[in-house]
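Q: Make up one entry.
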Amino acid sequence: MKKEILKLRNVKVHFPVQAGVFNRVVGHVMAVDGVDLDIYRGEVLGLAGESGCGKTTLGKAILRLVEPTDGEVTFVSKEDEETELTSLEKKDMDPFRKKLQIVFQDPHSSLNPSFTIFGSLQDPLKKFGVKSKEERRKIIGDLLEAVNMRREYMDRYPHEFSGGQRQRIGIVRALCLEPELIVCDEAVSALDVSIQAQVLQLLMQLKKDKNLTYLFITHDLSVTEYLCDRIAVMYLGRIVELCDSEDLYNNTLHPYSEALISAIPVADLDKKTERIVLEGDVPSPVNPPTGCPFHPRCPKAKDICKTEVPKLKKYSTSGKDHYASCHLIDLPERS
């Protein structure tokens, strides 16, 4: 039986928009607008969507690197004890900082160029009770070797490494405190394709060895197909489809997911499908459209899509739970 490690309920992140001489609040950027999501222990959950849809903001809100405006983020321990994180004081978050870590998108800017690798990685160990410098060096050295790097690299500076090596160092930093869940924020998007494959293989090996759970944030659905157990597709701050990875590709329900999948490059011409080109840009999260947020770009939109916001409903495809928020699924001509 699957057990949750995180429960997200109606999570919202709204950033104020200020204008005028007195910097009055004239609106809000609704980056995340009511997300309900369960993340299970030991799984890789993909969070996919175009740039600007709120994926990274949601990942940071889980860790409270960005404070949620509303909603609940509940951490479930191995002993099934539940702790609502958004209500905690910052100092009370410390025990959960060890259990929830992040690998940032840009490995270069996430490392201090003035510090050696050891200098950057030792601070969390010092904060959480590893007083001996020799012990800190041993922990960091062991982890560097676990990601196929040499122990002595800890005495070098970030500029001395390639992009792929810096990303491995970012993974080591996330692993230092023996976390239970890691948010991988576009962890391979800045890397060459060959290096991407190496880092992905490394992540999966570490998941197996250390019994990790990943929230894998990406805009590349070709990566999630082979890496993730489940995929949540996000659009304009909302989850529009959520199901098993295989089910998303074989039984797509939402038109936005269909468009994303059609854009995946395919080498086999026999399997190539017609590209669905979406018109226009993602609407502004400051002034989202009425009704379904996707309807201005949806080639199948009906009148109901322009007035009513669809709810994320549970369907069944291939005998599995499949969640989608689309009026078209329930229309007679669709069934």
In short: The CA atoms of residues 5 and 245 lie 19 Å apart. Residues 193-210 form the longest helix (18 residues). Residues 229-335 form one domain. The first strand starts at residue 4 and ends at 19.
